[in-house]
Amino acid sequence: MPRWLSEAEQQTWQSYILMRQRLDAVLAAGLGEHGLSMADYELLVPLSAAPGGCLRAKELAARVCWDKSRLSKQLTRMAARGLVDRVPAEDDGRGIVVSLTEAGRAVLREAAPEHVELVRDVFVDRMTDAESAAIRSLAGKVVAASEARSDSAG
């Protein structure tokens, strides 16, 4: 039998969902002003941080917790807009290497400062140092529990 959420737990869970939805909406709107979606940004950031702006598709999918199908469809859209390139991996022929194009790097450079200011305005600057530490701690616990569940399922 499930352990149902108490009233306080239900309020906490619903508060988290509402916060995530509202935060995603405001961040998406900000990125939209630069012609980017949240999905675009989620992929451009790890590519920009990778050596040479390149990652194997499998590694990129793992970093953003996406399945192969979702990644492939999003990369197709991004490649059509000139933000990324996909080429077969030289070392095995089966893998794909995704690289950030100059156009992708340019739009990221343009959007990132405003995005960071928005994150700061609606999230970071709204909490004390203690609240920030609590969120980092909680996030670590949730990520670890989620990864353990994923590892045991697959």
UniProtKB/TrEMBL annotation:
One annotated GO biological process: response to stress
Where does the HTH marR-type domain lie? 1-144
**Gene Ontology MF term list:** DNA-binding transcription factor activity
Family matches, as InterPro entries: HTH_MarR-typ, MarR/SlyA-like, WH-like_DNA-bd_sf, WH_DNA-bd_sf
**What's the superkingdom here?**
Bacteria
Name the PANTHER family on file.
Answer: MARR FAMILY REGULATORY PROTEIN, TRANSCRIPTIONAL REGULATOR, MARR FAMILY
Q: What is this protein called?
A: MarR family transcriptional regulator
Q: What is the lineage of its organism?
A: Bacteria, Bacillati, Actinomycetota, Actinomycetes, Mycobacteriales
